[in-house]
Amino acid sequence: MPALTFLLERVPTPLGEMLVVTDEQGLLRALDWHDHEARMHELMRRQYPGESAQLRDTTRPSTATQAMQAYFDGDIAIVHRLAVATGGTHFQRQVWTALRGIPDGETISYGELARHIGNPAAVRAVGLANGANPISIVLPCHRVIGSNRSLTGYGGGLARKQWLLQHEKALRADAPMASSTAAQTRPLPGF
Predict the structure, then answer these.
(1) Mean pLDDT of 108-131
(2) Which residues contact 12 (CB under 8 A, 6 or more apart)?
(3) What are the boundaries of each domain within the chain?
(4) What is the C-alpha to C-alpha distance for residues 86 and 92, in angstroms, rounded to an integer?
(5) Distances (CA, A) of 131 to 103, 156, 178
(6) Cα–Cα distance between 143 and 177 in angstroms, integer?
(7) Catalytic residue among 11, 19, 141, 171, which?
(8) Alpha-carbon Rg for the chain in angstroms
(9) Which residues on adjacent β-strands are paired with residue 8?
């Protein structure tokens, strides 16, 4: 069984400790929260079936960690420049690629995302692929909301989703978390 070696950094953020996983070439492989570390490991096992992924702790800041620190300092667009690599199925990778097309400061619904990938009937499958996203924030699954504009589903928790959307100016700071008018949405180019 081939072994993959990944480097794990633990980075303080305004939302708690973030786990940043890169490979030896510097590609971002996973990004999650310390209180969801078990889920991150499970997602990585599912992404790379038949392969043994070894995580090695490192304190040397990667390009991904530096970019995430800039993101939290207000440079939202920096995440677009990060090189990522994912496993997963063809469908999952298709959804994850589409996530990167959601403009900063905007949100879309799961239905809109399904239409964007050319499969409008796959709303539930899009939701499942979104939930299996290994690289939160950079593949901005937090920008996907319910069709009624409510904040639904986020592996890091709805409070983090709300904070991220407010940080990106996609959600008013005074908006209630589950309000049906909490987020404004606009279709992606090409929708």
Answers:
(1) 94
(2) 18
(3) 3-81, 90-167
(4) 9
(5) 20, 10, 19
(6) 14
(7) 141
(8) 16
(9) 21, 57
The predicted model scores a pTM of 0.85
CA distance 134 to 28: 10
With contact defined as beta carbons under 8 Å apart, do 69 and 79 qualify?
no
Would you identify the CATH topology of the domain 3-81?
Answer: Double Stranded RNA Binding Domain (3.30.160)
Tell me the pLDDT tens digit for each residue of 11-65.
999 999 999 999 989 999 999 999 999 988 888 888 888 787 788 999 889 999 9
Q: How far is CA 59 from CA 41, 122, 152, in A?
A: 19, 41, 34
Task: Please identify which residue in the block is written with the tokens 């993101």.
Answer: 71
Rounded to an integer, what distance in angstroms lies between the CA atom of residue 172 and that of residue 122?
30
The set of residues, in sequence order, having a beta carbon less than 8 Å from that of 29 and lying 6+ positions away, is: 6, 21, 22, 23, 44, 84, 85, 86, 134, 135
- pLDDT tens, residue by residue, 158-176: 899 999 999 998 876 555 5
pLDDT at 130 over 70: yes
Catalytic site includes residue 45: no
**What CATH number belongs to 90-167?**
1.10.10.10
Q: What is the pLDDT of residues 177-189, one digit of tens each?
A: 544 333 343 443 4
